[in-house]
Every structure is written in C-alpha cells, then in structure tokens.
Amino acid sequence: MKYQVNKAVVVGAGTMGAALAAHLANAGIPTTLLDIVPFKLTEKEEKKGLTLKDKDVRNRIVDDGLQAAKKSRPASFFSSDQQMLVKTGNLEDDFEVIAEADLVIEAIIENLEIKQDLMKRIDEIRKDSAIIATNTSGIPVKDIAKGLSESFKGHFLGMHFFNPPRYLKLLEVIPTADTLPEVIEFISRFGEYRLGKGIVLCKDTPNFIGNRFGFGTGAFALDFILKNGYTIEEVDLVTGPIVGRPKTGTFRLIDLVGIDVWDHVGRNLAPLIQHDKYALPFLEAEAPNKLIAEMVKRNWLGNKTRGGFYNVKKDADGKKTFLHLDFETMEYVEPSKPRFDSVGVAKKAESLKESIQTMLDGEDKAAKLIQALTYQGSQYASVLIPEVADTPKPIDDAMRWGFGHKAGPFEIWDMLGVQAIVEQMTAAGFAPADWVLSMLKSGHESFYQYKDGDIVGVYDVSKEDYVRIARSPDLLLLKEQNLIKKNAGASLYDLGDGVAGVEFHTKMNAIDADIVEIMTEALDRTENEFDGLVVGNEADHFSAGANLFMVVMAAQQGMWDQLEEMVRGLQDMNMRMRYSPKPVVIAPAGMALGGGCEITMHGSRVVASGETYIGLVELGAGVIPAGGGTKEIMRRVVNPAMRIPDMNLYAPFQKAFLQIGQAKVATSAREAQQMGILSATDRIVMSRDHLLAEAKKEVLHMVNTGYAPPAPEMIYAAGRDMRGALEVGAYMFKEGKFITEYEEKIAQKLSYVLSGGGLSKAAWVSEQYILDLEREAFLSLCGEEKTQERMWALLNTGKPLRN
C-alpha cells in the first residue's frame, strides 16, 4: 500500500497537541485540531448568555489551545500563513473528520483507559490506509491498541515528539509487534523529510529512550545536588556549555520544561521501572520529591508561571535580575555569581573533550559535581542496553536531538577514552554494565568504529561486534566532495553532476575578502566549467553578516579607498550572481543576517531551511545595507506595488523603510517570504540534513528546464516628497522616544537612498544607481563616531548599542 499524508488530525489541544498541529501546518499539511467539549460554562460565557450548546462554547477548549500556539514564544508556527492550515473542532460534533485523515496523532491526557476509549472510536471510522499514532511519553504503546482490529494494530505506533516540536529534532518512533514494516518505514521517512526530524526507532519500554535516560540521570543529579549543598547558581554554571549542554544548564531547563511536567513524568516512570535499581532509588528519594511537591503546591511551575527555580525581578528602569531559589529557606535570593578555578580553565579549552577532561581532573566543588554526573550518566547509559536499545547510537542520538547536548554519553565516553573512564567511574562507585568490560576485553576499545575520524560503525551488544551504521543515500556531505580550492575563508568544491559548491568557514561565516575571492573564482569556473553553483554549508548558521572588525578598523584608520573597494566588491559579486548565465542556488540555514541576507537575495533561487532567521540588521551596527540589500528590498517590496495603477505610494515605501530601519529578522523561511526577502518561487526544506542535496537537485532542475538569467530591472525611486515623508516619520519616532537621535540620523540616510537620493520627482532608475547611493550612505556613516561605537559594542558584547 502506498502511504501519503495530505490531511492530518491531532487529538488533544494542550501545549503539545496544539504545537504538533502547528508543526504539521509548517510542513504544509492541512490539519484539524480536536479536543473535548467543556463540561461547564465560564463566568464570561454565562454573562454573555451562552449555553453548553453554543459552538463557541463547545469549541472553547480547542480554540484556546490553538490561540495559545499562535501566541507562543518561541513561535510554534513558521508564519501567520501557516495558521490558516489548522482548523478546530470537538470530539462530539466533528469526530467524522478522522474518517478522511491520512494521519491521526493522539496527544491527550496520560490515562490508559481514556486513550483506549478514544482509539476504539477511531478504529470504527478510520480509513484502511490511515496511520494512527500516540504521542504518549510513558504508557506502553501496545497497551493502547489492545483489543482493536488487526488493521488498526498494523497501522498504529508511537510518535513521541519533544516539546517544542518545531525546534527539537528528536522524534521517537515506537512500533509494536503488530505494526506493519511498511508503516514504520513510511513514518520514519515522513518524519525525517517532511517534518525535519531525527528519527530514533525505540523499543516499547517505559518512557522509551530520551526521557528514560534523561529522567534516570536527572533524578540522580537532583538528589546529589541537594545532598551535597549545591546552589542553583553553582549547578547551572557548570552543567551548561562547558560540558556540551545547552546554556539553560540544569534548573533553567527544568523551568522551561515545567516543574509540574517534571513531577508528572517522574511519578509515572517510577512504578514502571521497579526493576531498575540504578534509577529507582533517586526517583523515589525523599528530599527531591518533597522539594518538587512543595513547588507544585505553591504553583511555582517554572516559566509558565514566571516563577520556578528562578524568578525575575525588574528594577525601576525595567532591567531584569534573575533571582534563584534557596533550597534551605525556600525564598528567592539575589545572584551571587559563584566562581571556580576548574570552570575558569574549562572555559578556555579549545574542544569539548578538553573542557570535560578539565572538569574530571579538577578537585574543587564544581569539578566534583561534573565527575559525579559524568560517571553516573555513563553507568546508567550502559545498563540501559539492551533493555532500551541494542547499540549506543539511539541513546546518543536521543540526547543530542531531544536535549540539545553536543554529544551523547557514549560519544563523550569514546572522546575521553573508554578504558580510562571505566577505571575512574568504577573507583567512584559507578561500575559500568558487564557488557562494557566484555567489549574491552575482546579488543574493542571504543563504542564506535571510526574511519578517517568519521563514525562508520557502532558496537552491537547482541552481536558482540561492530555493525555498520546505515546512512541515507540522499545526503550530500562536503567532506566527501572533490575540493578544488580553499583559503582561510571559504572552499570551492566539485559536487558532481556538473555542479560546483562554495562553503564559507570563517567565524560565524562572517563575509570577508577571502570569501569574496573564492566566490569570484566559483562564478568564473561555473561560467566556463560547470552547469551551476550551490552556496551553502553544514554549519549552524549560513552567515552572520560582514566582518565588522575589518570594517571598523578600516574606518578608524581612514582607509576609505580600501573600505569602498570592500563594499563595491560585495556589491559586484552579488550582482554577478543575480545575472549569472548559469543558475546559482543559495542554501541558507540558521542565521543569514546583514551581508548573509544580501547574498541570499541575489541568488538565482534559494533553497532555504525552514529554520532560517534572515534579515537586514545593519542598523544595529550604525549603517544601512550596502551589499545590495536596500536595492533588493526596493525591487521586491516597492517595485511590484508601483506597477499597480493608482497604488498608494506611501505604503510600500513605509514597509521597506520599517523593515530595514527596525532591523527586522524573519523567524522562519516562510516569514521571509511574507517579508519579501525570499520569493514565492524559492523552496523551503524542512530537513536541515538534506538542505545541500536539495539545493544541488534544484540547480540540476533549473539547468534541465532551460534556465536563463533575469532581464535587468529598473528600480522605482519616489523622489523628494517621499524622502520628506519618511524623514517626518523618523522624526516622530524620535520624539516618541522609540528611537534615539542618532538612529534618526541613520534613518535619514536610509530615506535618502529609498527615495533615490537627490531626485526631485519619482523615477525608475538602474540598480547600479541605487547601489551607488547605498555605498555612499554606508561609507559616510562609517565615519561617524557613534557608528564605530555600535560596531565595537557588537564585537565585544554581541549586543546592539542604542546610542
């Protein structure tokens, strides 16, 4: 049977269910969100004279859930356009929509009986090809389908997303013994390609893999912290980036998850793992459970109640101070900023391996905490095999993709040396599982098998040997491509099939002369030797913009000719891409800011990751876009409107002015299309892993369909009257104290360029005309002391200065 997902239903409009519906919509799938009918009226509904029969009342729970998803921060939806794909209904009046659904995901209360009752109803009306999934985090999947039809069981499995589902990559797929192999295969591919997830196939064991390991080690950590008198500040200082974990550390993460959720998962897990002598004692430990219960009782649930392990205090100027909970007094106290010698050394380490090793070698309080967490985490990971997985890989994948760790427990173990860590953890009272000792004794010195530094195999406990790690044949990895040329800033590759590729690799992929040099050679070679070009990379971010250090140093030293040459070089490179006779496809992901945004806008086409954060942010550095960004916004936002007879002249210019002047950044590729940064013909790819491969496919498609470059386009410049109107707007912003006096000056420069400089009346001008105005404005602002102050602030603090 050939499966497809053209319509979906999510049952349960809580935080997870509504966010799931949003992410299905992000993937372009029309989705219906269902929930129960309220049992009673609210006071507000009673005052309106409504009854339990009114549709607004009957859909109140589901509508409230969807509204919460629309307002959530970080955003659940890519854009407001995606919101239109989600409809709401209730489980009494609208249940029949399930009969048309290709995929139904249940995300209701963690109660087996209620889930079973729902599945019985679904089984009665589902179509034969419909796949039914549960998002349960702990109830055995097989029990939920008990007693249902064979067809239902064959099309039923667990799809455990991690919250928020848009942002966390992990999707645990949990088949039962009855799930058809083709259903498992389809959902795994659908999850990876359509939803952009990292798939971990799990056994149907309590809490599967991510939460089993996460809560087994988390319960130990909380118990150890309380027993040894650590403060919240001390813990979060050391359990963050220096050991390869998110900046949230331990307690900010629990605040983010929700103390009530932590309590719920822990309490549900304990009865299910009475056999687990390594985690159960800590899940049932008195002090942590007493603390969590008291916080739940006080409604200190974390970020959702604005008070958990942390609480925010604002002073008269609105400046935030993060207070933290004192475990002894149960009161919030001011930060004390603890310091440890081991942490100071670890922060200077050049690699994660060095950083963790520093903590394991240390002797102070912070080091002792990391030693305990590392050794217990290694022990617990080992004893979970083969119960939850046959190899270390699913556990490592789950911790990286679901919890944001840089490396999983076995990857860290390999990094530090398996034998050495075994000796240390055993001495500390955390002996590993017997299979680890057997593995070492048989001559296998690591959990993974490596070739030229890359992982190619993993140790399988049941086979007592390495097994090959299967890789998607669709991936395009730059390290496997033929390198043509490389300098300090970028590399040029032959990607095969007549396609060239450019990768940036400066710090944050900031654009400098080295990148321009490689890009120029790439365009030369593409014209003569290749059919097309891909510009992208495998880093977290496409490009954070121009190299500010080079710009501000040149400005302060009065190197105006060199600075102008630098800007002109970027403009010329971008224009050459725009009119290249061969297709140039840009593949941004993560941040594509300032110059990175300008490069993106000048490609023949863009194949963007859904999670692309793109915008012209130059105002934060005290300048305006000068690599063609201002010109492109005029071409994309102003030009189309000006071709409409009797169009309101001010509206499109206001949009362009505010977008650049407020340094707006699209929070997704979809939103970038709404803003005009990306076009409607640009493609959006959900899977970051497959972005480069899809960009290459796009080049080949454009070649095969007879690509030709666009005809030169004139730009509409509105002239003196528009300049005046925009400057009045900037003045009013300043008078209202929305912008500073210097920001008004920058806005005047922007108005000058948008209006066409000194034009007395509206005119269609060449792209080069606007580029020259951009460059002139940029250089003049670089000479300003306040602009240089802004640039240094960004370089030193990473935050914009509002001077």
From TrEMBL:
CDD domains: crotonase-like. Residues 1-27 form the signal peptide. It comes from the Bacteria. Pathway: Lipid metabolism; fatty acid beta-oxidation. Residues 208-311 form the 3-hydroxyacyl-CoA dehydrogenase C-terminal domain. It catalyses: a (3S)-3-hydroxyacyl-CoA + NAD(+) = a 3-oxoacyl-CoA + NADH + H(+). Residues 8-205 form the 3-hydroxyacyl-CoA dehydrogenase NAD binding domain. Keywords: Fatty acid metabolism, Lipid degradation, Lipid metabolism, NAD, Oxidoreductase, Signal. One of its GO terms (biological process) is fatty acid beta-oxidation. GO terms for molecular function: (3S)-3-hydroxyacyl-CoA dehydrogenase (NAD+) activity; NAD+ binding. Belongs to the 3-hydroxyacyl-CoA dehydrogenase family. This is Enoyl-CoA hydratase/isomerase family protein. It comes from Candidatus Desulfolinea nitratireducens.
